[in-house]
Write a structure and sequence with these properties.
Length: 253
């Protein structure tokens, strides 16, 4: 049994572009080709893709994923054991993924073949490469993007947890500010907008006030960013944009 690139993209919840990218860099090369030269993925390829997506979900960069999977001294069961340990540490947030790893371990032990849908249902409709690809397309030629990549490559899992905790804390405080009816031009809102700018500068790349203004507009015009910020509190995206404007004007003065 083999599957087309479109079928595999559907099973795994990733884009066809992501699968093509994995093929191009040698991370997941389809085991078969059709008579017309089209990619065909075998069960072994689906096993490897499952492993890739687990490691990507855990924050591993693609080059590290390749090194892990191609290590000749590590067998598939060792990968599953390691992933299970990592996922269990995040059990509150990723309980469904931990259960899926256990299912994969049990299936391998008992010689049971999981269906393609069962292999990848844990990932839902999220493609781990989606935003990484888009970010590179939009900003890949900029110094800011290069700086962000350099810094991110040095971060440990503990670093990423700390960064996310800061984001969560900021979001809770900003949501409370919006709920309290604070104006975007108020000191509290401008201070949180400035904290937002400095957070990006501290962990990714330096953000000028002019650049921050552009980000603020994007948070409203790009539906995905708007959904992200509005999920903290309805109307937060537009409130933040206006607070960014007010904060930039304050510093210009």
């Amino acid at each position: 049994m083999s599957y087309s690139v479109g079928q595999v993209a559907g099973f795994a919840g990733v884009t066809v572009r992501t699968l093509h990218h994995y093929d191009d860099i040698g991370l997941l090369v389809p085991g078969e080709r059709s008579h017309a030269g089209h990619r065909r993925y075998t069960d072994a390829d689906l096993d490897r893709l499952q492993q890739i997506l687990f490691y990507r979900e855990l924050g591993f960069p693609l080059d590290e994923v390749a090194a892990l999977l191609d290590d000749p001294v590590t067998d598939p069961r060792a990968h599953l054991r390691r992933q299970h340990e990592l996922l269990t540490a995040r059990i509150e947030k990723l309980q469904k993924m931990a259960a899926a790893v256990e299912q994969a371990m049990e299936a391998r032990k008992m010689g049971i073949d999981l269906t393609p849908e069962e292999r990848f249902e844990v990932f839902g409709d999220k493609d781990p490469e989606q935003y990484a690809e888009e970010a590179e397309q939009r900003w890949g030629g900029t110094e800011a993007y290069a700086e962000s990549q350099r810094r991110a490559a040095t971060y440990t899992k503990e670093d990423w947890k700390r960064i996310q905790a800061e984001v969560d804390d900021w979001g809770e405080r900003y949501a409370a500010l919006v709920a309290a009816g604070e104006e975007p031009s108020g000191e509290a809102a401008m201070d949180l907008a400035e904290e937002h700018r400095q957070h990006i500068g501290r962990y990714y790349f330096e953000v000028s006030y002019e650049m921050h203004l552009s980000f603020g507009e994007m948070y409203v015009s790009d539906e995905r960013f708007k959904v992200f910020y509005d999920s903290m509190r309805e109307g937060l995206a537009e409130h933040l944009r206006d607070a960014i404007r007010a904060n930039a004007a304050r510093h210009a003065a």
